[in-house]
Amino acid sequence: MRQDGQRQQEKITFPYIPVKIKFFICHGIALLWVLFSIFLSLRWVEDLGRIITIPGSIFVVTGLAYIPGYLNAFLISSLLFDRQPAYKVDDPQVPVTLLIAAWNEEQGIAGTLRKVAAQNYAGQIRVILIDNNSTDRTAATADTIGQELGLSLRILREERPGKHHALNRGLAEVETELVLTLDADTLMHKSAIQYIVKRMLSSPADVCAVAGTVLVRNSRENYLTQMQEWDYFLAIASVKRLQGLYQQTLVAQGAFSLYKTEVVRATGGWPDVIGEDIVLTWQFLQAGYRVYFEPLSVAFTTVPVSILHFARQRSRWARGMIEGLKTVKPWEQPSIFAKYLTGVNLSMLLIDLAYTFAWIPGMFIAFFGIYWIVGPMSLLVLPITFLSFYLLYRYQRHVFRTLNLRVRRNIRGFILFTLFYQFLISPISVWGYAQEALKLKRVWK
User: What is the pLDDT at residue 406?
Assistant: First the structure.
């Protein structure tokens, strides 16, 4: 018995589990899930095989069920193991340079620069805005606002179109050890730079980049932006957490990330591809560097409001993934984590093809009572989907509370995202793959 009959809470501590052990444990859990899925789906494979042959049936079911189930089980189990390392630096004061590539951003650049000026970062923030051949008053507006806010702002002009040209033009003028990239339509939370620099300075020497968290700022526009809010808030952020756990974040996105200047220069800067941030990051990994993710470093970006612009953006992302796979093969990566995580992108090809050419037609014929691919049993996936999203939501809500932010109620967007988002993403991604295969003209906007 304890003295004075008082109950004293004892802090429960868990033994440290090395990252590689977590990696194999989570693969084991995912494999068990797939074996269970195969057992449940044997009748489905057999029935569908009578119509499209057994090999065709296995291809479809693998793309629709086995691989997505494996990846989802690996994601959830990994996130349950995830513990962010403690910061070793609380109040960083090293100078940083912020690169903003801008093309016709006259309307929004003032808001972006105001958020830069509002940062609670103790060190010097130098801003280099690269006007990428704008035809409006982007540069003049930025200059006026920069003087008004007292920013350390330089404005350069890059005539050659393309974000990689603009960023490399700015990189040549950087004099600080750390360089940030920020999209011209992206607003940083007041603590964004502080948290992302803290993570970099608290990381091992071979960490050359830290990706920030990018969320949606214009989610109230329409149904499409409401769905994208949940994509960024749950799916994209959670995948980055998974990759960050294994210290191999696959995209230090140009929208908001921090880099070691000399490593970017040594790698050759941003390459002349449509997915310049993807290829650059994979080149970091191939060179033996690690890339981290900082969930508390948050910025809010403007997402497409029309299907056309959304399709262009996401097909560009899909095409960039293929560029990355062609530039650095997964088996050429030195780390087992990088081999696996980049290799996952190969499976995305199969998933998108299966959803586009099997699941969507299957949904259509199911309305006529033909349940070859989609049937009443397909509804059983919804409880699992909602459970996984709930676990992801709880963590993201904790992040928001730490930053004194509030998660906006967007139930309609969540339902639409859960039920219909894949119907948009997969065909658009397949179109992006086809664009790269056919070497079609690259379009950034």
Answer: 86
What dihedral angle (degrees, nearest 10) is formed by the CA atoms of 150, 303, 398, 84? Answer: -80
- Cα-to-chain-centroid distance, residue 438: 26
Amino acid letter, residue 252:
A
Side by side, the strands of the sheet bearing 178-182 are: 152-157, 125-131, 96-102, 178-182, 256-260, 207-216, 290-301, 187-188
Structure tokens at 401: 């509370």
Per-residue model confidence (pLDDT) at position 371: 84
- Beta-carbon contacts of residue 99 (< 8 Å; ≥ 6 apart): 128, 130, 167, 170, 171, 174, 179, 180, 181, 182
Supply the angle between the helices 138-149 and 109-117 in degrees, to the nearest 10: 20
Per-residue pLDDT, 444: 56
Alpha carbons 65 and 274: distance in angstroms, whole number: 31
- First CA to last CA distance, the chain: 70
Per-residue pLDDT of 271-314, as tens digits, reads 999 899 999 999 999 999 999 999 999 999 999 999 999 999 99
- Structure tokens that stand for 212 in this block: 């920030």
The per-residue pLDDT for range 388-425, each reduced to its tens digit, is: 788 788 888 888 889 988 888 889 999 999 889 999 99
Tokens of 224: 């499409």
**Phi first, then psi: what are they for 369, rounded to 5°?**
80, 15
- The DSSP output letter for 15 is -
Q: What is the DSSP string of 304-335?
A: P-SHHHHHHHHHHHHHHHHHHHHHS-GGG-SS
Q: Helices in 62-162 by DSSP H: which ranges?
A: 67-81, 109-117, 138-149
Query: Structure tokens of 334?
Result: 């030195």
CA gap 177, 46 in Å, rounded: 60
Residue 178: what pLDDT? 98
CA–CA gap between residue 194 and residue 196 (Å, rounded): 6
Alpha carbons 294 and 257: distance in angstroms, whole number: 9
Which residues make Cβ contacts (< 8 Å) with residue 408, sequence separation at least 6?
219, 229
Q: Report the predicted TM-score, pTM, of the whole model to 2 decimal places.
A: 0.90
The DSSP letter of residue 154 is: E
Domains for the chain: give ranges and CATH numbers: 19-81 (no CATH), 96-338 (3.90.550.10)
Amino acid identity for residue 398 in this structure = H
